[in-house]
Write a structure and sequence with these properties.
This protein is α+β, with helices and mostly antiparallel strands and 274 residues long. 19% of the residues lie in helices and 27% in strands. The chain has one domain (4-273): 4-Layer Sandwich (Metallo-beta-lactamase, Chain A), CATH 3.60.15.10. The mean pLDDT is 95.
């Protein structure tokens, strides 16, 4: 059996394997096991049944998504930057990229740096590496065990500057190697799953919360919440972006209020109104 890429039909996590025996993301406490057993989709299987979409969020920001829903259904963000300043930065990845999506990224200038917050945001990151061969594929060292589908070229410890004004920060918590990307140019904070943003049908944020495990409602410890706060406090941002939501209503001050509220009580999952 040839070595190839397979997506977990339950969560969408990709592995490069002969025949995956299980899914490390589903087997972890942060996700649910599939009730009907393991089922893995080849890249050809996904290509036959899925397509994608992309939309412009701001002058320099595009969102790439996959339809129909595959796995956790995350968003791949593309920050468009002049080649003279280092080129485009992709953070997180859509669950699958159709040829039309890849063509759009090429039209926008390709990818110079590629990174993701943690395994829930990896999506089909391997496709982006294969198509654009960026020099930098950055994953925090504590999550390297989940990177079987692609090759990490830039493991890092606490911080990594992808370009002036675009810095990855190790935050831990939800996953040991979870990282966030701070965009000082546009004052945006790509926070991974540091926060869960509940939104209404019109995309307006209604509640914000922070978890160790969303499916099981496992809270973070005070030490983990404090680690989040220590990273966020010195940073200036007016919008939060998770692998799933764009929340321009939530800036640093609101994020700090949520973390301070969590530190003032025993650990528990609480959805705080925005």
């Amino acid at each position: 059996m040839p070595l190839s890429h397979f997506a977990c039909a339950n969560c969408g996590f990709w592995q490069q394997h002969f025949a995956p025996p299980d899914c490390p993301v589903c087997s972890d406490v942060r996700n649910d096991l599939p009730e009907d057993g393991w089922h893995f989709l080849s890249e050809d299987d996904v290509a036959r049944t899925h397509y994608g979409d992309f939309r412009q969020i701001a002058d320099d920001l595009w969102a790439f998504t996959t339809s129909p829903h595959l796995g956790l259904g995350g968003t791949g963000w593309l920050i468009v930057r002049p080649v003279a300043e280092g080129g485009n930065i992709a953070f997180e990845a859509a669950p699958y990229y159709s040829q039309a999506m890849l063509d759009k990224i090429a039209d926008l200038g390709g990818i110079a740096s590629l990174a993701a917050s943690h395994p829930h945001g990896y999506g089909a990151l391997f496709q982006l590496q294969r198509a654009f061969d960026p020099d930098v594929v950055a994953i925090q060292k504590d999550d390297l065990a989940y990177t079987k589908a692609f090759r990490v070229t830039a493991p890092y410890d606490d911080t990594l500057e992808l370009a002036p004004g675009y810095t990855l920060h190790h935050v831990g918590g939800h996953y040991a190697g979870q990282a966030a990307l701070h965009d000082t140019k546009a004052k945006r904070f790509f926070c991974g799953d540091m926060f869960k943003i509940d939104q209404d049908a019109d995309g307006r944020s209604t509640h914000i919360s922070s978890h160790k495990a969303f499916h099981k409602d496992i809270p973070l410890t005070h030490g983990e919440v404090q680690a989040y706060r220590d990273v966020i406090a010195p940073l200036a941002f007016d919008a939060v972006l998770t692998p799933f939501e764009y929340a321009p209503e939530i800036g640093r001050d609101r994020a700090l209020e949520v973390l301070d509220e969590a530190l003032a009580r025993p650990p528990q999952v609480r959805r705080v109104p925005v």
